[in-house]
Specification:
By secondary structure, the chain is α/β, with parallel strands linked by helices. The chain has twelve helices and ten strands. It has one domain: TIM Barrel (Alpha-Beta Barrel). The radius of gyration is 18 Å and the shape is globular.
C-alpha cells in the first residue's frame, strides 16, 4: 500500500517551477511514494477559477502554468490518480485517457458532484448511469474510474438511506469504483471505519486525515475541532488503516485543506509522514 499526498494540499507551495521542484523533493524525502493530481491544477485554468478558490479561502494560484509532466518525472513520485470532472470525461474521454496515461497512472477520479442533490434518491439514481458510462468509455483506453466522495453523499434520501449507499448500489463495479475520503465521512458524523468495511474491495484508494483541536489562543472550556495531522486527533485511524489493508486498498492519500501546523502545508505533510511510515 503506497503512501501518497493530494496535490491540493500543496497548492500554496507550487506557485513557480523552482518552488514546486523543491516542494516535491521534500515530499519525496519525507517518505511519500505517490501524488494524487488534479486536472485543474496541472493545466491552464479558466480565469475565474483562481478567484473562486481564493474567495473560498483555499487559493490555488497559477500552478496550471507549470510543466507538471517534467516536475513529476524529476521528483520520482508515482502518480496514483488524476482528478477530473464528469463533464470533461464524458465530453472527451480520449483526451483524458491520453493525459492520464502520460502520467503513468491507470486511475481517473471524479472529484465529487457539487450540483447533485444528494437528498433526492431520484437524483442519485440518475447520476449512476452517467458514471457507469464514463467508466466504460475510460475502460476502452485501459483506464479505471473512481468516485471521490465529500460529506454531501452521506445525506439521507427519502427512504432514510444514505445517498452514498444508493450510489454504490446503482453503479457497476466493473465500471466505477471508489476513492473513499474518510475525513468527509467523519465530518458527516459517520462511523468511517464501518464505511471502509462496507465498501470492501471497491475502495481502491483512501483519503486520510485526522480531526482534533489546535490551540491558537488562550484555551477555554470549548475548542473548535478541525482537521489535524494524523495521530494528533481523535479519529480511529488505526482501525481505518487495518480495514484498508484487509480490503486491498492500493494507496493511502493524505489530504488536508487548512489548520496546518505553523500554518505550513509542507510541514504538516512532513509531520503526517511520520505517522504513515510507522503504521503502513
Amino acid at each position: 500500500m503506497k503512501r501518497a499526498i493530494q496535490q491540493f494540499q500543496l497548492r500554496t507551495t507550487v506557485q513557480s517551477e523552482e518552488q514546486a521542484r523543491t516542494t516535491l523533493r521534500l515530499v519525496k524525502e519525507a517518505g511519500y511514494e505517490g501524488i494524487d493530481l488534479n486536472g485543474f491544477m496541472i493545466r491552464k485554468m479558466p480565469f475565474y477559477l483562481p478567484m473562486l478558490t481564493r474567495l473560498a479561502g483555499m487559493p490555488i494560484g497559477r500552478s496550471g502554468l507549470l510543466n507538471w509532466k517534467a516536475l513529476i518525472d524529476e521528483s520520482r513520485l508515482e502518480v496514483v490518480g488524476l482528478h477530473e470532472d464528469l463533464g470533461s470525461i464524458l465530453g472527451d474521454p480520449e483526451a483524458i485517457v491520453e493525459e492520464v496515461r502520460s502520467f503513468g497512472t491507470g486511475y481517473v477520479v471524479v472529484t465529487g458532484m457539487f450540483r447533485c442533490d444528494f437528498s433526492r434518491q431520484e437524483a442519485v439514481i440518475e447520476l449512476s448511469p452517467k458514471l457507469n458510462w464514463a467508466g466504460k468509455l475510460l475502460k476502452q483506453g485501459r483506464v479505471n474510474l473512481l468516485y471521490h466522495n465529500h460529506n454531501s453523499e452521506f445525506r439521507k434520501v427519502e427512504s432514510g438511506r444514505p445517498a452514498y449507499e444508493i450510489l454504490i448500489k446503482y453503479t457497476d463495479p466493473e465500471c466505477v469504483n471508489l476513492e473513499y475520503d474518510s475525513y468527509w465521512a467523519i465530518v458527516a458524523s459517520c462511523d468511517t471505519v464501518r464505511w471502509m468495511d462496507a465498501l470492501g474491495n471497491r475502495a481502491k484508494m483512501l483519503h486520510i486525515n485526522d480531526r482534533g483541536t489546535r490551540v491558537k489562543w488562550p484555551a477555554g472550556s470549548m475548542l473548535k475541532f478541525d482537521s489535524i495531522e494524523p495521530g494528533f486527533g481523535n479519529v480511529n485511524l488505526l482501525g481505518l488503516i487495518a480495514s484498508a489493508k484487509e480490503n486491498g486498498v492500493e494507496a493511502i492519500i493524505l489530504e488536508t485543506h487548512k489548520n496546518w501546523v505553523d500554518n505550513s502545508p509542507l510541514k504538516s505533510a512532513q509531520l503526517s509522514a511520520e505517522f504513515l511510515k510507522n503504521h503502513l
